[in-house]
What does this fold into?
Amino acid sequence: MKYIYLLFLIVLSKTLIAQSKIDSLEALLPSKKGLEKVELLNELGNAYCHVSPDKGIDYAQKAYTIALKENSKKDIAKSLKIIGLNYWLKSELYLALENHQKSLKIYQEINDIKGICSLYGNIGIVYKELSEYENALKYYLKSLEISDKEGFNIIP
It folds into this structure.
């Protein structure tokens, strides 16, 4: 019983910390414009992923729309990655895969090695969840190869 109570306290504290961060980010939102707003919206999309993936998707889609207008490929790719992450957490795996693949394509166009490495890992995770183990392994190995070559300690 003691361990259940401890686990409950840990989960509760993580949720409260996440909500505090979200509140701080949302308070900054009205003062931001352009790419600064995109960055903040993506942070919110990421912050909401474990609290409310639907809100995470909403914020990341807003970031995506502005990033398109600003023609910032790196921010477009990041928004799509965050949308994919939130869909994965909702177990909407095909939508997660679709957004991750779109993000990967853009990261490849701009030769963003960390982005490519991260997306290979994310796509591998989605394929694993879909029980497509050969595809999962293929993407995990691509991610690992880049990580080893570039000296990444943690896959970004």
About this structure: Residues 2-28 form the longest helix (27 residues). The helical segments are 2-28, 34-47, 53-70, 73-89, 93-109, 113-129, 133-150. The chain has a mean pLDDT of 89. Residues 2-111 form a domain with the Serine Threonine Protein Phosphatase 5, Tetratricopeptide repeat fold (CATH 1.25.40.10).
